[in-house]
């Protein structure tokens, strides 16, 4: 039996109870990409070096993981938080933002494929969420940034009056209303993308505009990423922002 030990930073995405005292944790790791881990006994008698609270959505950990050629599941042997306290986990708004981000990240990754640039971007976004109250356009910027590191950043050729085609990722005059942002939302997206330099970068758009942009960007990711699933937390996010 061949066993491998890897020391890696990781971002917890979600967890599922396994048996009476264990968890199966899905996490985005720097070295190994998206992986599933068996965390044995963490819900039972206090386990040295591991706590159940470590495995909440978007917790950042430095961990020692092991795997063998006889098992499809990695195990987490040791772990410690990368951010001391991680206060966003106890803040209602921030914890829901964290859940949304974790769901998006989990849905755009393929199992076992390292995405170093996306990992570093996600790490920066979590640190930003920890350090300050998220602005109303935080998740719009997060979604746009995610497309950059997935290689599907929207086309930057824009002219006034065009709309953003969610299937093609381009601005166009010819479109199907069900597959494009409105003219107004397309113009705002152009500002976020840095195309329309004559306008100030928005962060105080009306709620309806933010809703359309977030839903539109999720629709765009769905068109670009096979198997993409809309976050279950979307409705809560819409009520917050």
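Q: What amino acid sequence fits the structure above?
A:
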């Amino acid at each position: 039996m061949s066993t491998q030990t890897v020391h890696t930073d990781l971002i917890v995405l979600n967890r599922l109870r396994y048996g009476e005292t264990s968890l199966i944790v899905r996490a985005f790791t720097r070295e190994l990409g998206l992986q599933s881990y068996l965390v044995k006994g963490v819900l039972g008698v206090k386990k040295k070096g591991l706590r159940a609270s470590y495995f909440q959505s978007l917790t950042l950990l430095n961990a020692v993981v092991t795997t063998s050629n006889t098992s499809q599941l990695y195990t987490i042997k040791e772990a410690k938080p990368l951010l001391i306290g991680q206060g966003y986990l106890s803040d209602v708004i921030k914890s829901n933002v964290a859940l949304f981000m974790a769901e998006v990240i989990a849905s755009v990754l393929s199992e076992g494929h390292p995405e170093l640039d996306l990992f570093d971007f996600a790490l920066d976004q979590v640190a930003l969420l920890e350090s300050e109250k998220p602005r109303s356009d935080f998740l719009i910027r997060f979604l746009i940034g995610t497309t950059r590191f997935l290689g599907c950043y929207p086309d930057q050729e824009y002219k006034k009056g065009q709309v953003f085609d969610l299937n093609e990722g381009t601005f166009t005059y010819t479109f199907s209303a069900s597959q494009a942002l409105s003219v107004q939302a397309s113009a705002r997206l152009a500002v976020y993308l840095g195309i329309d330099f004559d306008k100030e970068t928005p962060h105080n758009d009306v709620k309806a505009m933010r809703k359309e942009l977030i839903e539109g960007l999720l629709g765009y990711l769905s068109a670009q990423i096979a198997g993409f699933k809309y976050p279950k937390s979307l409705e809560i996010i819409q009520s917050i922002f």
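Q: And what stands out in the fold?
A: Helices lie at 92-108, 116-131, 138-150, 183-192, 207-224, 234-240.
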